[in-house]
Structures are given as C-alpha cells and as structure tokens.
Amino acid sequence: MTRILRLTLNGRARADAVADNLLLIDYLRDAARLTSVKQGCDGGECGACLVLVDGSPRPACITLAAQCEGAKVETLEGLSGPGGALSPLQRAFHERLGAQCGFCTPGMVVSATALLRKTKRPDEGAIRAALEGNLCRCTGYVKIIDAVQTAAAEMAADQTAEAAG
Amino acid sequence: MTEALADFTLHRPESLESLAILRRAVPEARLIAGGTDLLPNLRRGLVDAPALIDLTALPDFAEIEPLAQGALRLGAGLRLADLARAPELAGPRQAVAEAARGVAGPAHRNAATLGGNLCQDTRCLYYNQSDWWRAANGYCLKYRGDTCHVAPQGKRCRAAFASDLAAPLIALGAEVALAGPVGERRLPLADLYRDDGADHLALAPGEVLIAVHLPPFAGLSAYEKARQRRAIDFPIAGVGAALARVTGGWRLSLAVTGTDSRPVAIAGIDDALDLPLSDDMLARIDKAVQKQVTPMRSTMISSHYRRLAASALARRLAQRLAEQARDAR
Ligand SMILES: Cc1cc2nc3c(=O)[nH]c(=O)nc-3n(C[C@H](O)[C@H](O)[C@H](O)COP(=O)(O)OP(=O)(O)OC[C@H]3O[C@@H](n4cnc5c(N)ncnc54)[C@H](O)[C@@H]3O)c2cc1C
Ligand code: FES
Ligand code: FES
Fold this sequence. Notes:
The complex is a heterodimer. Helix content of chain A is 36%, strand content 16%. By secondary structure, chain A is of the alpha+beta class. Chain A has two domains: 2-79, Roll (Ubiquitin-like (UB roll)); 82-164, DNA polymerase, domain 1 (Orthogonal Bundle), CATH 1.10.150. In chain A, strand 1 (2-9) and strand 2 (12-19) form a beta hairpin. In chain A, helix 2 crosses helix 5 (142-164). Chain A is globular and about 50 Å long. Chain B is α+β, with helices and mostly antiparallel strands. Among the domains of chain B are: 1-54, 2-Layer Sandwich (Uridine Diphospho-n-acetylenolpyruvylglucosamine Reductase, domain 2), CATH 3.30.43.10; 220-328, Enolase-like, domain 1 (2-Layer Sandwich), CATH 3.30.390.50. Helix content of chain B is 28%, strand content 19%. Chain B has ten helices and twelve strands. Chain B has helices spanning 16-25, 38-43, 80-84, 94-101, 106-111, 114-118, 131-137, 166-171, 279-292, 303-328, and strands spanning 9-11, 30-32, 51-54, 64-66, 72-75, 175-180, 183-188, 208-214, 220-226, 237-246, 249-257, 264-265. In chain B, the strands form three sheets. Chain B has a five-stranded antiparallel sheet with strand order 4-5-8-6-7, with no helix packed on it. Chain B is globular, with a radius of gyration of 20 Å. The mean pLDDT of chain B is 95. The A-B interface holds A 1, 19-23, 25-26, 29-30, 39, 42-45, 47, 50, 53, 56-59, 61-64, 66-67, 111, 129-130, 132-135 and B 1-2, 4-10, 32, 35-36, 39-40, 43-44, 52, 54, 56, 81, 104-108, 110-111, 130, 230-232. One FE2/S2 (inorganic) cluster is lined by residues 39-41, 44-49, 59, 61 of chain A.
C-alpha cells in the first residue's frame, strides 16, 4: 500500500507518497536526498544510519518511514550551522581528528547532538554511554570522545559569553 | 537503496476493539512495536509478513501504573529507554531497569518496547544470517529446512531465546496480561515460553501481550549479562536474581536467559536461606544453574563457556544481594 507521509524534516514540513514497506533510511536517502544517513551494516548493528526522531536517536535502517507520521526528524544536514557552516560538533570532529574515513561520523554526530542537548558538560563515561551503539572502524574512538568533549567545552563557553554579553 | 522489503500493508489500530477486528480480518498479519527485532528479520527474509499491525497507537499501552499493595502494571508498549529510568523501578525492582539499560544500544532502546522484548524471536548462528548465507549452507529447521544444524540428531530447533527483560521479570514473579479473541487472560511470564526454538511462544492465535504485572515485592533484585562487547550484543548468558524476606529467612529466585530456547527459572533453591550465604549454599546455586541450563552450539561462543558464565553470574549475584541484605539490616 502507499500512503501520504507527513512529517517535519530538518525543520521543514513535508508530505510524500511512501509505500508501507519503505524503510526510513531509503526515504531519507532516495526521496529526500539526505545522503548523510549511511547504510553501514545489513540492519541495526552499527549506528551509521542514526537520525533524530522527536529528538531521540533511532536507527533509520530498521525503522519504517510510515512509523514517523507526524514526527520531527533530523539528519546531520539539519544539524550543521547556518548556511551549511560546520556546527561546533562537526568542527571538533574535524579538528580533533574524530573523523577518518568519515562513514560513521554522521551517526556519531547525531548521538553526540542528542547527548549535548540534554547534558551540557558530559563526563567521559556519559559520552561513552551515549556513543556505545556507534561503531567506528578507523579512529579507535579516543579522538571521537575528545571531539565531543572539545565541542561541549566550546558550546558551554559560547553560552556563558552570550549570557554575559 | 537497500534491498526493498517484501511488500506488506501496515495497519495502526487506535483501540483494542479495532485491533481485535483487524486480527480477525487479517489473521496472517504480524505485530510490530519498535520493530528492532522484527525489521532486521524481515530484511533478512526470515519472516513472511503480508501485513503488519503497528501496536504503538493503542491507548494506555505505554503506561506504568502502581496497583494496590505495591503491585505494578507495566504496559507492553513501554519503551526500554523509559523503563531504564523509571522511578518506579529504582528500588527493590531495579533488576528490571538494569536489564532494560543493557539491551542493544541507546538508539534501539528509544524504539524497542517491553512487549517486543518479551516476544522477540529466538536466535541462532544458522538463522540470523542473510538469505544467501542460509541458502548456501542449507536452510534449517526454524525456517524452510528440515534439519537443526546445531543438533542434527534432534527433532527440534535449538535456537536460543535472549530477551534480557525476561530473566529479572521471571525472578520477580511477573505475570503477563494477554488480550485475544476470547477476551483477556493472565499467565505467569515463565509459562509464556515453550522449549522449542521454532515455536517458543505460548500465545494463542490472535493474542497480544498488553501488560506485565509485578506482584508486591520488598526485597532486593539485580540483573547481569555476559556478552562479547559491553554494548549492542545480546546476552551470552543473563541472570536475573531476586532476594525476598520470608518467614524463617530469605528466599532467592533466579532466572537465566540467553542459554536455552526459553528462559530458565532455576528450581531447587527455594528453601529459606540464612544470611550470609554459606560457601556450601553458593556451590549449590552454582551447581543448580549448571545442571538446569542447556546451551547448545547456537552462538559463536562455546556452549560450555555459556554454561559457566550463567552459573558464575548467578553465584555472584546471589552473594552480592545477600551482602546488601545483611548490610541493610
Ligand atoms: C543490534 C541489536 C542488538 C540487540 N540486542 C539485544 C539485547 O542485548 N537484548 C535483547 O533482549 N534484545 C536485543 N535486541 C533485540 C530487540 O532490539 C529487543 O528485544 C527489543 O526489545 C524488541 O522490541 P521491539 O518493540 O522493537 O520489538 P518488535 O521488533 O516490534 O517485535 C518483536 C517481536 O515481538 C512481537 N511483538 C511485539 N510486541 C508484541 C506484543 N505486545 N504482543 C505480542 N507480540 C508482540 C512482534 O510480532 C515480533 O515478532 C537487539 C537488536 C538489535 C538489532
Ligand atoms: S545501517 Fe547499521 S545500524 Fe543502521
Ligand atoms: S571514521 Fe571510518 S568508520 Fe569511523
């Protein structure tokens, strides 16, 4: 069956005709052309496809598009800065060498975004716990944790400056 | 694009009445909640599903409700991420929250439900594989084949049931509420399961798990699982333990998951115990677990290791709960 799926995607309302058996990952990559959402495994194991659904990370490769009716969906494309500039998290992944081949990076940034929205200055344990479902073949994780800590510090400093200014 | 799923129609009933009507009208439909177990299986061609019924819009399906005398009702649609941080599960029944926290990864837990966890499929090295892998190796008893590759002499499927939540809930004496064509019934959770990896649920046709009921409980509980990595992985063995005050001493309940085609409630350790637990008693617990679980070669981990992991976890949890109970007095 086909239905009209209505959702908010990266802040914009959308309506698309989707088949009931369409996976969210295919909807995002092929219908919405949001190719930051990666297929890294054959279903549910790696975290490369994570997106935010109503603010919480969800694996898009084992979610039906139709299950997101009325939801707010965010992908990495919606998490970058104004005009496509790098967000503090993206910049920190770049500068602290948290990305090598980059295939896991969108999922990592999605998990880290959900964490930093809830916890301004997470300790290393909290970062490890938030990223425990994201696999990386390249970095060995240490630089990824460093990147999240760096971004958290920078974002907290910006907020303090904003509050003072 | 990923390989498309076989075609199906998705229904989303908003009341138990419309669910019942749908189940009569589309008896071949499969239920889906979070989809974190069903969708990987659909993707691998392990399940035939001409129609899916999404349970997540049912009313009161995701509620935690305190009942009289400290009993608790957990709606089957509760997300594991919510169970993990529920204040109702922070005290004596913390084993349930501990188990929820240990399921899969954080993103799965945002979607995964309690009912889906308890009704998840059994797992096996020869089953949770792509279609080409299974076709090349020869299909197995659980799907399209006629031999169990784990125990070719045997007559039944030896896939293992690996729900983390089942173990602590059974140790805490949980019952399940099932809604079906002939109304609602209650069943001890342990009786929801059968010792057959290809047919492990005792749900009648058309039945849905709607809630888990926990009886009043004033003791201590804990859950621990052994797994290859500290996240994402299913339990090689998982043990739920509950220690309750009874007349004349303490009673220990243990249930093991991940080793057999059903969760195993450990028998023969229910006499009133004195604290601290003697070395003899701990050895008896260890032995009881080793005797009663029957892991087979259904995972990459040897069955002997899984047996030892189960008994070691049981012994460790028993000792830890006994020490906590003594310190609390
Ligand atoms: C990488 C990965 C790791 C995992 N690790 C673990 C783990 O460590 N421990 C663990 O326990 N699980 C694990 N899982 C399996 C799964 O994520 C969980 O068991 C989850 O709780 C399933 O819930 P769900 O709501 O997503 O179930 P669904 O996939 O929606 O449903 C699972 C099954 O239960 C049936 N069902 C669902 N709800 C009901 C109901 N109310 N009444 C009757 N039948 C119902 C469905 O028809 C289906 O057959 C893992 C999965 C993945 C992909
Ligand atoms: S692609 Fe690997 S978890 Fe989704
Ligand atoms: S940077 Fe290559 S997988 Fe993580």
